Amino acid sequence: MKQITVAAGIVLNAKQQMLLVRKHNTRFFMQVGGKLESDEAPEHCILREISEEIGCPARIIQAVGRFETAAANEPDHVLVSHVFHVELNSSPQAAAEIAELKWIDLDDSTTPLAPLTREIVLPWVHQYLKTQA
């Protein structure tokens, strides 16, 4: 099975909503992020992708981990994701290949979510917010 390696960012706001993006001609919403360039560190990739996709400077709060899930938009691909909790330094705007961005509530049941978001990120965010309470 083919593999896609990406860096993905978890962005939360003060209302405990999570920022998700949808790329042009796709249906699933997912973390901001993208494919690593050759010899690029995941930490560098996530900051570059955030800048390109939503036009924000950002900082990494913590590395969450490396996860494998099904790819949302490429059938028969495994997605290897280096996931980071990040903080934006300005308001995000859709740019580059991003068709739409939105803040979702953590109990949102109507937005079509990518496997990584549904299986890994949402459970992590729920756990993280419990530890912050």
Would you write up a description of this structure?
The structure is a single chain. The chain has helices at 42-54, 115-132, and strands at 2-11, 17-23, 32-35, 58-70, 77-88, 98-105. The chain is built from 2 helices and 6 strands, in the order E-E-E-H-E-E-E-H. A hairpin with a 6-residue loop joins strand 4 and strand 5. The N and C termini lie far apart (41 Å). The mean pLDDT is 96. With 133 residues, the chain is an alpha+beta fold. The strands form 2 sheets. A 4-stranded mixed beta sheet has the order 3-1-5-4. The chain has a two-stranded antiparallel sheet with strand order 2-6.
Brief summary:
The protein is an alpha+beta fold and 133 residues long.
Features:
single chain, 133 residues, alpha+beta, four-stranded mixed sheet, two-stranded antiparallel sheet, 2 helices, 23% helix
